Amino acid sequence: MSDSSHSSIIESEEHTALRAAVAALGRRHGRGYDRETLWREAGKLGYLGVNLPEEYGGGGGGIAELSLVLEELGGAGCPLLMMIVSPAICGTVISRFGTDEQKRQWLPGLADGSLTMAFGITEPDAGSNSHRITTTARRDGDDWVLNGRKVFISGVDIADATLIVGRTEDARTGSLKPCLFIVPRDTEGFHRSSIDMELQAVEKQFELVLDDVRLPADALIGDEDAGLLQLFAGLNPERVMTAAFALGMGRYALDRAVEYAKTRQVWQEPIGAHQAIAHPLAQAHIELELARLMTRKAAHLYDTGDDTGAGEAANMAKYAAAEACVRAVDQAVHTLGGNGLTREYGLASLITAARVARIAPVSREMILNYVSHQSLGLPKSY
Question: pTM (2 decimals)?
């Protein structure tokens, strides 16, 4: 929908200008976009690294700016899923906790898109319970040796490395001590196999097996005893970016439906004149705008260093955006009727894609658990 009504109180002139520039790029590529071409162009223009430090080739902004980029590309029908992973999660973690050498090696490439990094946390038997991560890292002289499995890891085939979340071996039965390691794609013992997904997305999903993967000492990000701090430095931006991904998809679907409702005529007036069509579309627009506000709040809190406040807001933003996206897509398809299921209009594939935002990177039920426990102080059931 049009952004002309945005007030500078809600969004700065710089952000409004960034939205307009990225939206123009998105319109040039459109729904039939080529991922590699768009990725390269977005990187060259500085959009992929807008959140990374200027001294390493980034834009010096934050997750607020990066989320705007993803939302606007999604609004044009050409979202770049790996933005959630490469600059948002991996770039943020390396920026905050990496050594000077790790920053020099990775951040300039992540900023201009010449390097891509995947993120591996999810495991077959852990699900949403990150405390059950069993991928272990043990010391062997100056090296680290990793063993474990990961599932539903996006874009490993196009990533130069994967940031793997493991845990120190002596913490296997104790408190969670996540450690993050950079594993180059062709490392010996690092195996990937694609998962046959019903969802036909540009970015593929993989299962990973780490079989005595030997890494040098400098593959470790930050401090092995930093605990949850390093992990959540990446997970809060992931939730904000997933919200932006959902918002873009919902806006794209809603725009297509509104265009159709304005011109499709069966009786005397276009179908958009009928309240049974108009009101659900208006409701979808309201829900997307409300979710967008919470997404901005979450990004602002994170960028200003309020990790605790950002945790609550990021979960709420992800929840609200996912729900709004699913409803917007459903109503868009319903508005077009049979045309909504054709390739020509490009909405049917979004029915499945929209549900991804409800499921990943954390289910809506786990977000409700978080809010009930952390925000409302209700007792845990697990």
Answer: 0.93
